Amino acid sequence: MHGAADPVTGVEQARGLAGRLPRATLGVVHDGVHDVLNDASHRIAAATVVLWLERLRADRRDLRPILTVVEADSNSVARAPA
Q1: Nearest to 24 by CA among 61, 54, 59, 52
Q2: C-alpha span between 20 and 71 (Å, rounded)
Q3: Looking at the whole model, is its pTM more than 0.85?
Q4: Which of 2, 35, 43, 53 is geometrically suited to a Cys-Cys bond with 14, CB 3.0 to 4.6 A?
Q5: Strand pairing of 69-70 and 2-3?
Q6: Is 2 exposed, middle or buried (0-12, 13-18, 19+ CB in 10 A)?
Q7: Could you give the CA distance from residue 74 to residue 55 in angstroms, rounded to a whole number?
Q8: DSSP class of 77
Q9: pLDDT in tens, 24-76
Q10: Which residues contact 73 (CB under 8 A, 6 or more apart)?
């Protein structure tokens, strides 16, 4: 996660680093500053980190699910997109 308006480290530097890492994912928070988890958009930044962690966990087929969400009006299971 990187703030597009980060005065400490430019977004191009973050893009360059992410481009050198084979499985990197870079999230750029528009108008975000250096500490995107302590900024006005902290909730969306934190949610994005959680979804990223869930995708990492989903790649591990040997791990059991931590949580299954069942809709109250049916027996179907709602899962977050991978």
Answers
A1: 52
A2: 42
A3: no
A4: 2
A5: unpaired
A6: buried
A7: 26
A8: E
A9: 889 999 989 999 889 888 999 999 988 888 888 777 777 776 777 787 775 55
A10: none
